[in-house]
Each structure stands twice: as structure tokens, then as C-alpha cells.
Amino acid sequence: MKTQIRIQFIKYSLLYFLFFGIGLNVLADNLLLEEDFDFQVGTDIVGKNDWIAGATSTNKVKTVSPGLTYTDYPNSSNTNAVLFTPTTDRVQKSFQGPLSGAYYYSFLIKVSSAGSGEFFIGLYSGSAFRGRAYIKADGSGFRLGLVKTTTGTVTYTTGTPLVFGNTYLVVVKYEFVPGNQNDIVSMFINPNLSQSEPDVPAIGPLTDEGNDVTANVFAIQGRNNSGNFILDGIRITANWSSIKNTDDHYVELPKFISSHMVLQRDIPLKFHGWGTPGDTIIAEFIRNNQSFKDSVKISEDKRWMILLPEQTACSQPCKLNFYIKNHSETLLKLDDILIGDVWFAGGQSNMEKKVIHLLEAEQYIAEADNYTQIRTFRAGYSLNQEPQEKVLDSSQPWIVCNSANLSDKVSAVAYVCARNLCENLNIPIGIMQSYRGGTEIETWISPSMFQDPELCKSNGRKVNTATDSYSQSHSINFNGQINPLVGFPIKGFLFYQGESNTKRALEYRLMMRKLVEDWRNLWGMGELPFYYVQLFNMSAASEYGESDWCDLREQQRLFLSDKLKNVGMAVTIETNEDPTNSDNSIAIHPRNKKPVGERLAKIALKNTYGFDLLAEGPVLNRYRFSNDTVYLYFKNYGDGLKLREGTFLKGFMISGSNESFYSATAQIINDSVVALKSQQVSQPRAVRYSWAKHPTGNLCNSENIPATPFKTDMWKSKVTYTSFPSDCSVKSSDANLLEIRINGVSVQGFKPQQLSYTVDIQDKGYQDVTALTSCIFAQVKVIENPAENKTVLKITSENGSVQEYEIKFKENTGIHKQKNPSVQITQEGKGLIITNTSDESYDIFVYNLSGQLVRL
To answer: What is the pTM of this model?
Structure first.
């Protein structure tokens, strides 16, 4: 049987040689090495089929008969195998592989006796085995062991010992992770090859310290304490499915297409994967005994993609089948699949912290079995300089978020959000997790986006310190943890990141904009919702203090003004329950994440699902300077502004034109308005609220959601940021504005190309003019001209080009200043009575406090 199959391979390769004029490896690309030891019984295998001597000992590696058999394992038969006894030579064989992704080496083994424990097989790197397997006697049986390197501790199988004289199928997975000590190994014993890779190996995953594999060599050896055993059917493959498929008719699915998954409702189901070029793959979705099926021919680059009809939400388990036409042995069956909404959760460590980290962890875990419609997938850590097609095999396939799985496998923030969505929508919710602690936002943006001239300049602005290493390279996390997931249909994004970017806080708005544009473009599903978390409170509480955290929070707030649709921000200014802990790893990782997830869910319920609810905290809508008083007008106040705690408002600061801020006495004067005064400031020109790393501000709305920290001024930050040289030759010429605000209200009808505006005002009080630039690297100078009742905004770009916007103020008629004696205006309650005492006709215009025309 073996000989016949091998002859078929040779004929197949000869045909290709005749047609294409080149020599091809007889093994499929996904099959890196295959050895069944079909040599003459009793012969030394050195020199046979490219085996060479690695190290000589007392005994030679010789073939014996019969060979080993195992159901469904390729080429297993009753021909030959090889025998090892203590002190048998090491023999080794080279193979070609990319040293990326994962290698699976598999073999059949029958042990007749074992010693005190020693390795016998594995990848060979320079002068030592890597990812090596062990045999050790245990009573009347034996155990198999595994270690990544020569210096690691061997981990042996547990439970009932393996039986002498039985044949076992063993698969060792060696997973490549960039770096010197990051690779991962796992061992599977007697796995079911008719199914996808098991979620739980017999041993591992292990990440022993020590150097990783650097050579494509495979070695086997009998050592003093390994015992007596027979090996057969050695194979090295690049994916799990190829272990079984001798003729290379195979179906390979991405790790995130698995049983227990949630598929996005109301859009075509989209699946992709890999297989043998020219084969036809069939995908079948089964729901309530109704089948939806389609097929496609696998392209020459081994890729395939299939669309099946869109589905409405479904909480009843559905099935998916994938197989190669005319090759039923390739069938992959996936079950317990639900249809609902899938949310993508990304960011750094505070998104990564699992449910077990929650203050309410015990309660959430205990209640999880009531929410088994929530499912999750997690992409494994993967640092890569180039975009990857597949996530690492250490990635966690879809699991049910029940009490058994929840504690250490699911992001706390994402789960709380998902549970709230599930409760309100009554549909399955999927969570796609891809995050990594301590990462900068630049690591999550695609390489192609860095061709953008604005992002080009950020190359030189990266911090040149020891911590700015390989792990913070641009796109390093995107390449392995985002790129492989692109295109999997989702409902939207949840993002929690920013702590690692405080050292370059003033660039964060730009980075956020590029990240959102990047991911939306790559997914190709339109303006997908993007909801993110603003930085929480850190360090000792203070009324006021300039810091990089304040600057980054302000950039996160300003990002909402970037005119991107379907964007929302969850304020978490009061959520850190232990911000002054001397252990910084605790202080920077609040356990009070329930309100964070709940606020994200509220934003999604209102903005994405159309619920009528108060989703966000009070946001400054406009303000007015009146002599020594500042009036602040808020939106999102619900049934009225209130104090979150305490007996008086805190956190408000006022400054005159000298840029020195002083504590303000603040009072809520109605549902939506706060009035400020300070004895130190007779003519207020700017207001800041909750402007500290750990602010004391306590303003909230009727839903107890805190007000967003803000500043009304455009004054330059007093935080010192390191200036970094840039080798980018492109300097932006963008000197345009995104918007102009007068007392916090956007100028109506603003167009970046229009350079002059006339604005009606109600009185001659101070008109505070601010602006938001299109390019964050442009500088804005405000030039006031009270004599001509106008303000000029001078915008200077990086390359020195200048643009000026002129704002002319014109008084309008108001109830407080009656200019026409023939027209009498009086107020009665909340209404106006306008009386014309002459025979002439007049046009009457009424303006609100922001200078906007109110139509009668």
C-alpha cells in the first residue's frame, strides 16, 4: 500500500516536470516531510531517503517489520518501521519550511519498555533538540513528555499511564512567535484526525525559556534512559489538516471559523480558507433542517472564498460543513453555530484584562450560564514585520462564554458590554478579541496606512528609548493579529487603548482617525461603528494639574469632532478604584470595569440600535462670558445635571487672558446650565474641567454618567514633549480648518475653502473664537481686533504656508436692546409678544444666545 502511493506521487511529479520543465518536490507544500521507513528490513537507514548520521552511538537505527498501524493515519500499514534501544545513533533529515506559523510533527510509537526519562525525537537546531518529546516509565506503563528547549522543565502526561505494547499517534505542534524566547509547543495524543485541531492538548501550550528553532532539521535518537520503542509514519506539516491528507486534498479553515461561533446577521455569510489548487470546495450552512450550499474552485494561490445567503438572528444551533468535491474524507463539520451580532474588541491591557479581574467577577461567572448566547474568539499574540495571512495556532477558537470558560478567556470590558447587548437585544452576541498589553496605537495600524504623509512623519516622532523596541514597531501587532481577521463580517469595533501613547499625546487624535479609517476601509463594510474608552483616573487626586494624560484625554475628546460617523466615547474619569496603589500594575489596571462595559453598551444601544436612552455623560455644548461670570450650557443632561458625590461642584477652573487657572465656584442654575465665578479672575477667558490626571470633578447627569473633561481654550500644553527628528521628507501644506467655534458653538455653514464669515451676536460680550485644524501639525494663532469687531484665525502649516480666516461680528436685535421704537417686544412667561405700533411693515428676526437665527 505504501509503495503504491509513493509511486503515484512520483508519477504525478514527473507529469509536472514534463509539462512545466521544472523539478517539483513530490510532497505537497503543506507536507514538509514524510517518512514511512519502507526500506529493506534490518538495514541502517543512514543514507536512505536523505537521512544522515547526526551522532553515532552503540546501535544503528535499523528497519524492523511489521510497521505500525493507526486508523485514519496516512500510509499506516503492516510494512516496516524503525527500532530504537538505549544508545541508538541520532539520525536526522533536513526539510524546507518557512520558520513561521506552525509546524506539526506527527509519528506513531509503540513502547515496550522505558527508563527514568529521556528525549527521543524533535526538531534540531544547531546543536540541540527543540520541541522535543520524552519517554519515562511510570509503574506498569509509561508517560510521554514535552519541552521546548534544552533548558526547560519537562512536562509529562498526567492521569492513567500509557500502556506498553499499544500504538499511539502523537502530534507535536511547534508554533513560531517572532523573538528569541517566544515560541510555543504542545502535544496531542491520539487526536481525532477527522475533526479540526482539538482546543485542549494533552501537554501544553508550553513557552519554556531558551532560544527558538533556527534550522529545518528533524532528528530521532535512542538515549540511555529513553527505553525501547518503535517509530513509524513520521510527518511534518504546515497545518493540522495536512497531517491526514496524503494526496493533499484538504480543507483548511481560519482559526476563527469553528464550532460555537457567532456569524453576523443580515449580511451574506462569508467564509474563506485554503486548499489544493484546482479542487472544488463546497460550503453548506444548515439551519432548522434548511440547507444553503455553494461551491467554488480553489485558485492557484490555494485560496478560496464563498458567500452564502444572509441570515436573520438565530439562537438555535446551526451547522456548517466544508469538504472537497469527490473527497468525502476531507469533510470538516462545525456545529453549535449561532447568528447574531459580532463586535470586535481591540486595544491594550485594559481591554485584555479578563472577567476574573472584575470587582464583580464572582457574580458574573456564576451567572454566565444564563448567557450562553455570548461566544468569543481570541487571536493569539503575534508580532510580525509583515502582514500575515493566518493567526497563530495559539489563538483560542470560538468558545461558549459559560461559567466554565468565562473567568480567564474573555475580556471583562467586552463581556460586560456583550451581556448588556444580549439582554437588551435578545440575540446572540459574538466577541472577536485581539489585543495586547503595553502596545502603542501605531502597532495596530496597517503598513499601507503609513504611506499616508501625515503618518510618515510619525516615524521620526517615535520615542528613542530602550523601551521603543521591536515590540512597538509600526504595524507589528496589526500584521499578525488584525490582518488575518480582516473581512470577517462584524457589527462594529470596541477599542480601549491610549495609556502607551501618553508620551506622544498631542498626536493621538491623528492616530485615532487613521486607525478608524484604516480598519473601516480594510473591512469594506462601510462606516462601521467605532466606540472607544477615554483614559481613566490615575495617581493622587488633585483639583488641577497639566499632564500628558490630560492632553491625551483631550485628543480623545476632540476626535469626536473629526466628522467621522458612528463614533462614540465612554468616559471613565471616576472608575479607577485604586489609582494611588504603589504597585503601578494595579493602579493602571482598574478592576472596576463594569461601568466601562456598560457605558460602551449604552452608546451602542443608542447609536447603533436606535434605543431611546441617555447613553453619554454631560458634554459642553456652548458657553457665554458675562462680566465676571461664565455660563456653561450642557447637553446629555437627562432629567437634569447633578453632583455625583459631595455637596458642591468641584473640578471647574477659570483663567483670564494670562493663562493662569484658578478654582471656580460652580453652581447648577437649572437642568442644563452651570455658572462659574472666581475671585481671582475678574474677566474670564477660559474654562477647564476635570483637568488633572486624577481630577476631582463630580458633575454628572441623571443617569450618573460623569461629564466629559474639557477645556475651552486652544492654549499650548505646558507639558514638555520630546522632539524627535524625522527622516520623512514630506511636510504638510494643510493650513485648513475643520471647524470654527464661537463660544463653543460651531459656525453654521462652515466650509474650509471659505475664508470670511459674518456672525450675528446678541451683545458686545466677549466672543471666544476657537478652531480645530484638519492637520494636527498645523499651528493656530487667534488675533483679536476689538476696534473692528472681528477676529482673525491665522493657520500655519508645517511647510510654512499660511491660511487666514476672518470672523466679523455684527450685533443683532434682541429683547434686551430695542432699536426700533415702532416695534415693541415684551416677554410674557416663556413667550415673546411683538407689537408693531406703526403702519409700516418690518422683518423680525429672533436669535438665540448663540447668535443662531430662530425662525418664527
So the answer is: 0.73
